[in-house]
Predict the 3D structure of the following.
Amino acid sequence: MPSHRTQMKIVGEILSTTMDTDSQDGTNITHLIRMANISHGRISTILGNLVSQGLLEQVDSKRSCKYKISSSGKEFLLAYKTFREFSEDFGLTI
Amino acid sequence: MEFLFEIVLNLIGFSVGVIIGVISYIGFKNTGSPTLFRLTIAFFAIGIGFGVLALGYIIDDAITHTGDINRGITTIGIAIQTIGYWFIAFSHTIKTFFPKSKYLRSVGVLPLFLVSFASVEHVIRAVSFILLVYGSIETMLSYLQGRKKSTLFVAVGLGLLGLGEFVSWYSFVFPESILYAISIVIKIGGLTSLGIPISRIPLQKVKFDPELKDDST
């Protein structure tokens, strides 16, 4: 049975994707949608929140909107991965 | 001597519970995760519950000299621990039965265990036992899915805490026996087993960032 993904897990996947493809150009939204397996409407809201919280940086691009992980985002991702393990040790999801 | 033994064991329980609670709190502050928030409450409650019991023994040993811990303090200590066990069981309930409930994920239902002392202590111990067995079974099921050794330690830890509750409940039948001390030893074993996963957390790498906001609800 497929398990329900929490908002936190989706945020973790988005940040991981931007981290994995970390470059000056940033990651475009289509790639994020594909990697995080989420609808355009939903990811737009989440990306807006992440940018407003300083975890992602919006990169100006001629063709499309791109996103790059910030230093705060990297710290958050590290904490997320650490405490995801911690929660899983208790048989729970973060 | 028996008092000293119980004071030391309850203080160990207090320490282990508070340490896991603090780590969960750091995790909550860094990620804003409701799961970690519930674990924070759970382990602070378990630690404080042990602390209250230790305090009760210390007060009787140093001040009142009645030779037995005050029944009201025992009930309060166990009730606080039960709240902790309830939050662990509650987290498993959400994961299993209400994975999409935003209300339950964010708010949490306040435990309704506020009842008068008298012989309620027995009822609370029974509730604790049920909650711990439930939490242990759910964690064991998680272990069977993921096969993580540290999850097995947590499942065994919760199981030992449940067994400790059962034995301590039985100590009412044989009040002068060593059963209560044995129950505390089993509980400490359970808390130690629960504490094993936290030894792997590289906390020095995790910075405390108060600016991070919770948007997980």
